[in-house]
Amino acid sequence: MLNGLESALLLISFFCLMIGIGASLEKSDLIQTLQAKKPLFWGLALQYLLLPSLACGLALSLGLPPLAAGTLLLIAACPGGSTSNMFTYFARANLSLSLLLTFLTTLNAFWVTPLLVWIFSSQLPFAAAVTIPLPNLIMTLVAALLPVILGFVLRLKSVNWAHRVEKWGSRIGYLSILAMVFLWYPKMKLYFLTEDPTVFWSTGLL
Asked: How far apart are CA 184 and CA 88, in angstroms?
């Protein structure tokens, strides 16, 4: 949907934002999150059980066509990405927990995502096989975690520089959100006007 220039600009923006997010991480918070088992357990349970269940429920209750139902299920079965970390950072929520969940769900996606699709697709009225884009999952893991690691290492070396990088990273993050809105809205407008609105409702509700 995006051309090469738009994709490059958004990639650079998110890369800078994720470095800023990494620069905001405290080592003590990361250790505390690793030691606390319950938040990780419930985060994975909600990701792996609640989201696919909601996707099936929405697909059935809204009567989605087979392709839309399969796509919604695939969205629910895929791991969290860098966008979830971005909104967690802006909400001042538990950033270390969000990053760990992104890491674990992406790392396990090579076998968990196909398994979830296979299990929950039996509840939906479609039989078409869903292809799992494994190379894209690798790229997601790299794009979500590499800049965070760089920012975290920077904070360990220099807190002052980490504060500067965090400040500019958050600014770039806000600009990237605005860029997505302005770049995607004209292209999405045609889809909103021509496609079945229940498809958009189901995705938004999920």
From this structure: 22
Query: Phi and psi dihedrals of 132, rounded to 5?
Result: -95, 120
Say if residues 200 and 192 touch (Cβ distance below 8 Å). Answer: yes
Please state the pTM of the whole predicted model.
0.75
Which pLDDT belongs to residue 79? Answer: 81
- The angle at the Cα of 104, spanning 103 to 109, to the nearest 5 degrees, equals 100
- In this structure, which amino acid lies at residue 155? R
User: How would DSSP label each residue in 120-144?
Assistant: HHTTSS--PPPPP-HHHHHHHHHHH
- Write out pLDDT tens, residues 118-130: 888 877 765 455 5
Q: Give dist(CA 16, CA 160) in Å, integer.
A: 17
Q: What span, in angstroms and rounded, lies between the C-alpha atoms of 147 and 22?
A: 7
